[in-house]
Fold these 4 entries.
Entry 1:
Amino acid sequence: MSYARITGTGGYLPENVMTNDDIAKFVDTNDQWIRERTGIEQRHIVVDGQTTVDLAEGASRLAIEAAGIDSSDIDLIILATSTPDKIFPSSACILQARLGIHGCPAFDIQAVCSGFVYALTVAEKFIKSGSSKKALVVGAEVFSKILNWEDRATCVLFGDGAGAVILEASEETGILSTHIHADGQYEDLLRVPYGIADGYDQVKAGLAFVEMRGNEVFKVAVNTLGRIVDETLAANNMMKSDIDWLVPHQANIRIISATAKKLKMSMDQVVVTVNKHGNTSAASVPLALDVAVRDGRIKKNELLLLEAFGGGFTWGSVLVRF
Ligand code: ACO
């Protein structure tokens, strides 16, 4: 049987760093509150003119190099984002042109913070069915563009960035299982309330911001991520102790710790980047993966649990033999 293996990772962050103290200069907050409630110390924020596809291109080039392939070998591009450069063409198509690739399918996936887990799930199906041999899967966001920088409850939480992987058909074990879910009934808890349906006026007026009932989102996220861990282990007849690394969506250190506790994992086995990156939505899981691969923590053949939860609500997990 053919598997889909991750053969290269890449991550790209805008150079501009915004610390908690920087934010405290323009909204009523402080470093201590942000660190204690979220674990975030700083985040990277794009400068004017820098876009989702710019970040996606940076991450993709590094993933392509790490996999030791040529861009022309890529036969599928899936880009997860909620902050596309344009309404259309898709950011995946813009990225495809930047990379000089012609003809292969390229499309965006919109599942907010679960976007990369969704994209990896879809790419794995393409590879397992034989439709694709080498896929580029990217999560990239400029959430700074959809934040109300006067709302202290949301603006401190997010950052910009991109992460990418190359997924290749292989006889060697790779992705073992994928699990994705959604429940649209929770829109009121987490959303950007305006868009095309409103004639786009509020978007043009700069009023299309993330709205979140953080406390309620927090509770649903912790419970849901606990359930997805159980679902993933049961589907693979595995035990908690089989997992070498948890690579979680980086929304809040307290949500991450709760999931690690559920898995009876020490925080030494959890990849944490929320302190340095903030919540980069669809980019957070591939960015965290890339950090731990490049610093040598994650090694070949180790078992990784990737998981995410986000707007929609959407949630999911991917179990990977790296
Ligand atoms: N600085 C100082 N005080 C603040 C700040 C801030 N930045 N933000 C809120 N507060 C205040 C509130 O006004 C409130 O004050 P009050 O008690 O006088 O009314 C107090 O702090 C407590 O507010 P809570 O919202 O109850 O704080 P909580 O402990 O729940 O932490 C947080 C808030 C960090 C947002 C948390 O709820 C959280 O992380 N939620 C989940 C976020 C998440 O996982 N999102 C999912 C993915 S995002 C996506 O998909 C796009």
Entry 2:
Amino acid sequence: MQKIGFIFDLDGVIVDTAKYHYLAWKKLANELGFEFTKEQNEMFKGVSRKRCLEILLEIGNVTASQEQFDAWMVDKNVDYLAYIENMDESEVLPDVPRVLNFLKDNHIPIALGSASKNARPILEKVKLLPFFDSIVDGNNVTKAKPDPEVFLIAAENLGVPSNKCVVFEDAVAGIQAANAAHMISIGIGDQKVLSESKYNFNDFTEIDTDFLSKLLRS
Ligand code: B16
Ligand code: MG
């Protein structure tokens, strides 16, 4: 049987950090004199920090010099780090540890494929770091999702062919990246939003051992 690998997105799949990203972006928007809504924050899921700031400034109709832009990127991240400071394992989304344990028990290689540059400290805080054989995040890529780069590097690090990798993703851009890499895409969240995914579940509580076993045999 050919080896299979599993790749997990971080924000929205393993932990719900979107709410902390939202608070940090909203604080910056408010300081710049405009509102930023939860609905608008949906556009930021899976999107790099730089692109998020570009979109935020478009929303607020704000122009910035390169120097100011870079300073706001730093400000946002300082605030975000303060919001996630006290994160612990209670913030891991339901049944994620069950699925990770099932894969580990079956000796399946596991990677992280995230746009976040804060992925490693978050995994440390929620005590899931030991599950991951490879961590590919915003520090390792030159092209953001929907480009498949992040997942292709993860597959290579795991030593698994792309078409034998399974990707869990909550963002449209992430599903598109997994599909572009010819991987098996599994959407976590609203099926209407993630309609391009091969399989879809609202969360990991819906993913049973039968389904995982079938994937391992595929
Ligand atoms: P950072 P993911 C993404 O993580 C988030 O969904 C997105 O909202 C965020 O802007 C991006 O990481 C960058 O995060 O500012 O921590 O580098 O969903 O790809 O795990
Ligand atoms: Mg995500």
Entry 3:
Amino acid sequence: MNDAEGLKKIAGEAACEFVKSGMRVGLGTGSTVKYTVLELARRIQEEGLQIVGVPTSIATENLARENGVPLVELGSLDGLDIVIDGTDEFDPNFQLIKGGGAALLREKIVAQQSAAMVVVADARKQVECLGAFGIPIEITPFACDVTVSRLETLLKCNVQLRKNGSEYILTDNGNCIADAHTGPNILDPLATEATILNIAGVVQVGLFNNMCDAVVLASKDGVKTLMNPAGRLKRA
Ligand code: 5RP
């Protein structure tokens, strides 16, 4: 395991401290939270941890099933106790850019149903100002090029539809996904989110504002948990 992968594993596993028996847990998507799912599976098998999970993507659903994490439909529960998810960037106010793995729509639905959100990250994800990582935006296949040019006009930046060769990459929901390359200058993420969501062809945007309660951050100096002072969580 190389250094970057090792940091993902440390962060992903450490976040499991927030999970106790009886909890309903949102399971995020990506290469960092993969280690959270695997550690929860280990605790279920070896320590008798009792939880139910709600996956945020087909990939996470498959991973959880293969490793024996019990899953339920989000709609069968009256909310979740916690969601643990990865991020592409987080800023000093705990605002996030997510969706690098194209799972942002389900991730946001699950996060909105959760009483708390813990993010797992390595030090590369910590930024002063959001936007170096292009903002992922899920858009309808219908007239997706029209939506893209409207986004370019409004955001004054290049917006690129994700493609595999000449084929659009589709999300788990059958939508297209694009990335808005604003550069690291998103000074008001709430305003940017509102601007993007105002376009009819936009299904959802990967700006996750005022959702993240804590970041479990792994760096070469070890792992630490950054608590959002405005968040809903006390330390694990
Ligand atoms: C998927 C996401 C991921 O959580 C995000 O891209 C981080 O992934 P990774 O841990 O692999 O860097 O938002 O839509």
Entry 4:
Amino acid sequence: METVAAATKKSKKAKQVPFDYSKYIRKGKLPHIWCAGCGHGIVLKSLLRAIDAIGRSNDDFALVSGIGCSSRTPGYVNFNTLHTLHGRALAFATGLKMAKPNLKVIVTTGDGDALAIGGNHFIHTCRRNIDMVIMVYNNYIYGMTSGQFSPTTSQGMIATTSRYGNIEPPFDVCKMAEAAGATFVARATAYHYAELEKTLYEAIMHKGTAVIDILDSCPTYYGRFNKYKTVSEMMEKIEKDGTISVKQAAGLPPEKLEGKLLRGILYKKERTEYTAEYAKLVEKAGGKKG
Ligand code: SF4
Ligand code: MG
């Protein structure tokens, strides 16, 4: 496998030339179900470009999802794919990784799927530090089931289940991932798509649990309920004005950072990876090596 620096350079270069997505798309599965203006297509584009920069065979990757709009991602792409049960993507992904430790497993999940129904799986996947990338498409609402508030909906925001404003405080996905034991934690947005591509590349190259909180947009429910007039207005207010890169934030006084979420790699650490540790255990017990 090439070095991070060499492939990052290649990835930057790739942005300047047209990119052929055809080898990654299952054309027979199109058209996709996503609404006009949904951020999921941008996230997918960045993911495919990051995978391409890594330069491995499509067969080396497995995309796993639960249920929800973001969970439709694996159906459209030409990798090993699993579309599973609501909130259970990480349980299936764990089983897959244990059976096939050489696969690079990437989980595409939503804020509801990952943090409400699948919240317990999320915590324990991070704790084990099993080698996989968890992409949380965070659009602060349940999209597919028609706009209920989720664990990342901000207080005061409108959803089908909070018609007078949500009273629950939201999770900070990154803080929770780090506290639970993930060894790569980052935040990105669909608006900053080039940064997202780079962050995804670094996450895929990382050996251990990599969580990316990807701020994304659901204009159909969140946007409409909360009176964003256009998709671009929504993306600019939440993803552009509501975040600041780690680099830009360095040296700024706390009052300048108020109300802004940090973007970029927020935490990275080397720690024993779960499948490697399990293989050692099997050997110790006299079984076959993984
Ligand atoms: Fe995207 Fe929302 Fe439409 Fe689902 S309902 S496809 S999240 S815009
Ligand atoms: Mg959602």
